[in-house]
Amino acid sequence: MTHTEKGTWTFWPSRTKWTSCRTSHDPEEERRVRANDREYNGKFMYAHNHIKTSKYNIFTFLPINLYEQFQRVANAYFLCLLILQLIPQISSLSWFTTCVPLALVLLVTAVKDATDDYFRHRSDRQVNTRQSQVLIEGKLQREKWMNVHVGDIIKLENNQFIAADLLLLSSSEPNGLCYIETAELDGETNLKVRQALPITSELGANITQLAEFDGEVVCEAPNNRLDRFTGTLTWKDSKYSLENQRLLLRGCMLRNTDWCFGMVIFAGLQTKLMQNCGKTKLKRTSIDRLLNTLVLWIFGLLLCLGFTLSIGSSIWEYNVGKHFQIYLQWEPNMDSAVFYGFLTFWSYIIILNTVVPISLYVSMEIIRLMQSYFISWDMGMYHSGQDMPAEARTTTLTEQLGQVEYVFSDKTGTLTQNIMTFNKCSINGTVYGEVYDDYGHKVEITESTPCVDFSFNPLEDAHFRFHDATLVKAVQDGDMPVQEFFRLLALCHTVMPEEKVEGELVYQAQSPDEGALVTAARNFGFVFRGRTPETITVVEMGKSVDYQLLAILDFNNVRKRMSVIVKTPDGQIKLYCKGADTILFERLNPSNENLKRITSEHLNMFAGEGLRTLVLAYKDLDRTSFKEWTKRLHTASTALEDREQLVDALCEEIERDLILLGATAIEDKLQEGVAETLVALSLANIKIWILTGDKLETAMNVAYSCNMLRDDMSEVFIISGPTAVEVQKQLRNAKDHIGGPLTHKNDIHTDDCVFEETMNAEYALIISGPCLAYALEAEMQHLLLDTACLCKTVICCRVTPLQKAQVVELVKKQKQAVTLAIGDGANDVSMIKTAHIGVGISGEEGRQAVLVSDYSFAQFCFLQRLLLVHGRWSYHRMCKFLRYFFYKNFAFTLVHFWFAFFCGFSAQTIYDQWFITLFNVIYTSQPVLALGLFDQDVSEQNSLRYPKLYEPGQQRQLFNKRQFLLCSLNGIGTSLALFFVPYCALGHSLKEDGTTVTDHQSFAVVISTSLIIVVSIQIGLDTNYWTPINHVCIWGSVAMYFFIVFAPHRSSTFDELPKYFPFFGTAHNCLTCRTVWLVILLTTVTCIMPGVVFRFVQRELCPTLIEKVRHLQVSKKQNPLKQSHRLARRASRRSAYAFSHQEGFGELITSGRNMRGSMAPPQGKLQSSTSWVDSMLKRIAEQGMRIGSSSPKSMASPRNIALRKNHTAESKQRIFGLGPQDHCVSHVLPPTLRLLHLCALGLPSCTKKVTWEKVLSNLCYSMEPTGSQRCAL
Fold first, then answer.
1. Sheet architecture: strand order including 659-670
2. How far apart are CA 588 and CA 45, in angstroms?
3. Taking a C-beta distance cutoff of 8 angstroms, is the pair 1232, 1144 a contact?
4. Is 555 annotated as a binding residue?
5. Which of 88-92, 360-364, 568-572, 831-835 has the lowest mean pLDDT?
6. Is 824 one of the annotated binding-site residues?
7. Residue 614 and residue 578: Cα distance in Å, rounded?
8. 1116 exposed, middle or buried (CB, 10 Å; 0-12, 13-18, 19+)?
9. Which run of H or E residues covers position 259?
10. How far apart are CA 90 and CA 310, in angstroms?
11. What is the 3-state secondary structure (H, E, C) of 1186-1200?
12. How far apart are CA 288 and CA 68, in angstroms?
C-alpha cells in the first residue's frame, strides 16, 4: 500500500549521484556494510533511501530557476535594456515599460516551474512514505521507505514492493528460496527465483537471531549492472561468496512467498534501479533554441540600426544642429557631435527594443499552458476502463509534439497488455475455436458472442473465455486425442500452484504463455492442482489423478522445446513434449505425415492471424529402455567434461518418433488500436523502434502481430554475433545488402556522415542486448545507426534500461531529430528522461514511468491522437503565432527608424508613450493569443485521416530562419507604407475648417490608428478557424483602441499630469476629419493587398497538401462513404514458446529445493540444462493470402461485411476494419472552461458529438494536384 502524508512539503538536499556524499576525487571503490549497525555504516556516508526526482527545493528554487530563465537570450537581453533605461541621459522611455513586463515574465514562468516541481515532490513523497517493517533494537517497527538505512534488516511480505537492494537472508520457502517479479526492472512479469545462503536461511523468522546477526558484507560499489553482483559475507569467522542470485533489487515485487528477510546493501539513489534512471534534464523545444538564435540576429540588427542612426545624428548635429543651439542647447557635458551621436545610439537601442517585446515570452507560456490543459481535457484520450484521462505533466513541450521523427517504444505493457489468452487449437487435424452460424458461415467473434458454459467444472477459472462449444463436447464425450491434448497441457510445464482457499487456484508461471495453457487445460476439465518433487496432481474430469514425475527435460533457447516423463497410475511411462513447430516436426514418427501436413496448414492459418503457436506431441516409453536411458542420463549428468553436450544428446535420443497431438494458438493481446496507431504514425513519416527487455522471439511475435514485421519484407537481419568483430561484420553485411558497398566507401574519411536513403524494399533489423553493447561503442555507433536508419523496422531486445537510453541518445545527437520515448515500467525511466519527449503509460508495471514522464495516458493508441492532433495543432499554432508576432512588431517598431530621418535623429518617438506601452499589452495581445490557442488549419478528423499533414513539423517548414526573414521583410514593408503613405498624403491636407492636420501629434494618431487596423485585418486573414473568442478578441481589441485613445487626450488628464499626457485633444481633432479616414483607408489597402495577392497566386499555382485538404474540408467535396481498407497479414510459421532470461524451473522442481517436504529427488532427475545460445528461427517459405474483410464493432454499420475465411491449405491475410468512434465532450468540464475546450476542438456546442475514422493500417493518403484522394497500398 502507498501511504501519502498530507501537509506541508518535506524538502531534502538534492542528490544527483550516488557519490554525492563524497568528493569527486574520492569515489567509492568497494562497499562495506555491517548488519544492524547504523553507527558503523554511518561512517561511510552512504545514501539514505530517500528518492528525489524533483529539481528544486525551498533553498535552491530561486537561484536555479533564475539561472534557467536567464539562459534564454531574450531575458538577458531585456535585463540589459532595463539597466540602460535607468540612465536618464539616453532613455526616451520610462523604466517601468521594461521592468514590469520582465518581472511579469519571470514570475509567471517561476510559478509554472514551481507548480510542475510540486507535483514531482508529491510523487516522490508517495514513494518515500511507503511503509516497511524494519528491525530496530530487536523489534520490528513500521518505518517509511525514506528512513531505511544501509545495513538495516527488513521484513517483506507477499505482493509487497522491495524498498531497497537487499541481500536475501531467509524466507518462508524451503531452503531460503523466494520468488520475485521483475516487471519494474526488465518489463517481464514472469517469476524469477532467488535463494539465500544456507547459513543465513537457518535464521528463519526468529527475530532474536536476526537482531543478533552481525555479518559484514564487502561488495562492489553502486553501479547500474542489473545482471551482476559480486561480494562476500563474513560471519562467524567464515566467508561466503555472494552473487546476483542472492540479491533482491528495489522495484521488484515479492511473489508466491509469504515472507522474507533481507539486509539493505544499496539504498535510495544508489540502488541499481535508480542508477539506471539517469538525471532529470532540462528539456527545451527546438523553437526555444531557434528563438535564442533569432534574438541574437535581432540584437545584431538593432546594433546596425542604432549605429546607422547614431552616425546620422552626429552628421546632423555637426552640419545642422549647431545652428539651433540658441534654443536647442546641448547638455553641459556635451562637447561634440560624436559624443551626441554616441548617446543617441543607446537611445535608439531602447526605442527599437520592441522588435522583440517581452510579452512574446509571456504569450508563449500562456499558449503552452492552455495547450497542456487541452490535452488533459480531451475525452478522446480518456480511458474509461481505468477511469484515467490523459495528463500533461509539463507545459513547455507542446509544440515539440508536432515535430517527432523517432518513437522509441517498450513492448510489454506498452504495445501489449501482457495478457495471453488461449484462442484456438488444432487437435488431431480439427480446428477448434471458430464459430459458425446455422448456414455454415463463419461468424466474427465479438464481445457479444456467447461463451462456452464451463459450469460442469467446479474448478473453472471464471475469467477464461472460449466460444467454440464443440471442443467442450469432445472432451465430455471422451475423445481420446482431445483428452490427451489437455492432459499434456496439464502436465508439461513448470507452473507453481497456489491455493490458499479451497477451489481458488492461482498459477505462478515463468511466462504468461505457460499460464494461459495451464489455465485452458483447467477449464476443459484437466486441472493442475499441485506438485511435489516426485508427483504431479491433476483433477481429470472431476477425478484426482497422481502422476509420478520421472524427469523434466527443461526448455532452453537452443532446444526450443520442453518435455516431461511421467508414470501414469496404470504403470505406463509417457513422454509429453511441447515446443516450436520447426523443432518438433523433425522428431515426429513417419506415420504422422498426413496429420503433420494438416497441422502445418492450421499453423499457417494461426500465424497469419498473429497468434503464437506451439506444437504438442507425446510418446509411450518402454520400461526397459527408459531404465537404461535413465542410467546413461545419470552418468552424463555427473560427467566432468562436456556435460551439457552429453545431456543434450540423450534428450535428442529420447525425444524421437513422437506422436503428434496438435497445436495451440495463443493471442498475446495487443492493446486496443496498437496496429492502427503504428501504421498511422508510419504514414506520418515517424520511425518506430522497439526497445524491450524481453526475449527475441517474443519481441518478434509482437512485431508480427502489429505488422511491424511482415513476411513480404525483403530481409530481416538478426544481429547475434558473440564478439565485437562478429557484430561489426554482421552490421556491415546488412548495410551492404541493403544499399550496396558504396554506402560506406567514405566511412573512413567522414565518420560523422550518417548515410540514409529511401529504399523501395523494406528491411528489418533485430539486435539483442549483448550485441548492442558492442554496437554502441564509439567506433561502431555510426555503422549501427546507418544500418538501422535504412531499415523499416528496428527491434532491440533483451536490452538494459541504460542501453535504451544510449540508443535514444545516439539517435538524438547524430540525427538531430526530435525523439519520443514511451513506456510503462521503471525499466523505461532512463530512456523517457533522455528523449526530447517522454510519455508514460499507466499500466500493469506500476507508475514509475508516469512519474518521470512529460505526458501520460492509459493506452498506447492515444499516442496517435497526441501527436497527429494535439501535437500538429500545437506546432501549427505556435508557428503562426510567432510569424504574426514578429510581423506586427517589425511593422510597429521600424516606423521609428523612418521617422528618425525627419526628426533630426533626435531619438524622438513617433507614437504617444501610452500607445507604446499598451500596444503589446492591450491592443494586440488578445488576438494573437486567440490565434495561438484555437486556430486549426484542418479539423481533427482530417488530421487523423491524412497523416502526411504531420510532415511539415518534422521538416520545420512552418517556422524557421527563412520564415522569420519573410515575416520580417513583410513587417518592414508594412512599416514603410505606414509611415510614407500618411506622410505623403497628409503633407498638404487641410480640414474642412481650413486647419491643418500635419502636426506631429496628429501624424502619430493617424499612423497608430492605421497600424491597429492593419494588424487586426492581417490576423483575421491568418485565422483559419473562427470561434466566438476570436471575434471578441480581434474586433474587441480594435474597439478597445478607440475607447482608450480618447482618454489620454482629454483636457482633464492633461491638466492633472501634463508631462505624461501631452497629446491634448489630438484624437478628437484628428479622427473627426474625413480626409484622415481616407488616408487611413489608403494606408490599410496598401499594407494588406500585396499579401492577399501573393496568397491567392500561391494557392492557385502551387498549393500545399494542407491547402488541398482545407479545400476539400471547406467545399465539402470529400466522399462521405467510408471505404474499407485491408491490412495485409502474411502467414509466418513460427513458434511462440516463450522463455525467461534464464533457464526454466525444471531442475529446481525435481531437486525438491522449492518444496516444503523433505522428499529426495528421483534418480532420473535432470541436472542443469545447457547454456543459453541465441539462434535464429527457421523461416518456412510457404506463403499465401487469405482474402476477407471485417466489420466494425457496430453490427448496424452499413460497412459491415460478413467475414469469410477459407481455413484450408491457403495462407490467409488478416483484415482490420475500423468504424467511426464517437467521443462526447459535453458535461465533463467545469462550466468556465467548457467554452475554451469546445473552441479548441472545433465543436459548435457542448452536446454535439465528434466522429472520425481511424487511419487504417496499410493505407497511405496523398493528394493529387486535382485535389482528388489516392489510396496507395
1. 430-432, 416-427, 659-670, 612-621, 573-579, 561-567, 543-553, 535-540, 526-531
2. 64
3. no
4. yes
5. 88-92
6. yes
7. 7
8. exposed
9. strand 259-266
10. 12
11. CCCCCCCCCCCCCCC
12. 13
Q: Provide the pairing of β-strand 659-670 with 612-621.
A: antiparallel
Contact 98, 85 (CB under 8 A): yes
Say whether 144 counts as a known binding-site residue: no
Highest mean pLDDT among 488-492, 901-905, 982-986: 488-492
d(CA 740, CA 733): 9
Please check the confidence at residue 1232 and state whether its pLDDT lies above 60.
no
- Is 92 buried (19+), middle (13-18) or exposed (0-12) by CB count in 10 A? middle
Residue 411 known to bind ligand:
yes
Output the pLDDT for position 334: 64
Q: What are the cell numbers at 1073?
A: 476629419
Residue 514 among known ligand-binding residues: yes
Q: How far is CA 563 from CA 195, 199, 546, 894, 1066, in A?
A: 26, 34, 18, 84, 99
Q: Is 612 annotated as a binding residue?
A: yes
Residue 218 grid coordinates: 564487502
Residue 339 annotated in ligand binding? no
Lowest mean pLDDT among 196-210, 628-642, 790-804, 1223-1237: 1223-1237
**661 has a pLDDT exceeding 50:** yes
Contacts of 813 (CB under 8 A, 6+ apart): none
pLDDT in tens, 920-977: 888 898 999 999 999 999 999 999 999 999 999 999 999 999 999 999 999 999 999 9
Distance CA 760, CA 756 (A): 13
How far is Cα 276 from Cα 262, in angstroms, rounded to an integer? 22
Q: Which three cell numbers stand for residue 885?
A: 508576432
- Direct distance between the N- and C-terminal alpha carbons of the chain, in angstroms, rounded to an integer: 51
Cell of 330: 546641448
Question: Per the annotation, does 1204 bind a ligand?
Answer: no
Annotate 290-304 with b (16+ C-beta within 10 A) or e (fewer): bbeebbeebbeebee
- Active-site residue list: 410
Task: Give CA–CA dist 859/840, Å, rounded.
Answer: 10
CB 764 within 8 A of CB 737: no
- Alpha helix (H) residue ranges in 826-871: 829-834, 848-852, 862-865
Closest CA to 568 of 541, 588, 540: 540
- The answer to whether 828 is annotated as binding is yes
How far apart are alpha carbons 922 and 899 in whole angstroms?
24
Find the farthest-apart pair of alpha carbons in the chain and give their distance in angstroms, rounded.
Answer: 131
Segment (H or E) for 517: helix 512-523
DSSP string for residues in 971-1040: HHHHHHHHHHHHHHHSTT-B-TTS-B--SHHHHHHHHHHHHHHHHHHHHHHH-SS--HHHHHHHHHHHHH
Mean pLDDT, all residues of the chain:
79
Q: Is 694 annotated as a binding residue?
A: yes
User: 527: pLDDT confidence band, cut at 50, 70 and 90?
Assistant: very high
Name 496's bridge partners.
508
| 411-420, 647-656, 681-690, 913-922: least confident range | 411-420
pLDDT grade, residue 1177 (50/70/90)?
Answer: very low
Cα(746)–Cα(248) distance, rounded to whole angstroms? 49
Instruction: Please check if 479 is assigned to a binding site.
Output: no
Please state, in angstroms and rounded to a whole number, the distance separating the CA atoms of residues 327 and 337: 17
Whole-prediction pTM: 0.70
| Separation of CA 355 from chain center | 38
**How confident is the model at residue 142, as a pLDDT?**
92
- Structure letter (DSSP) for residue 446: -
Element (H, E) at 717: strand 715-719
**Where does residue 413 fall: left (phi above 0), alpha (psi -120 to 50 degrees), or beta otherwise?**
left
Among 1256, 1270, 1269, which residue's Cα sits nearest to residue 1217? 1256
Give the residues across from 689 on adjacent strands. Answer: 408, 794
pLDDT given at position 1178 = 35
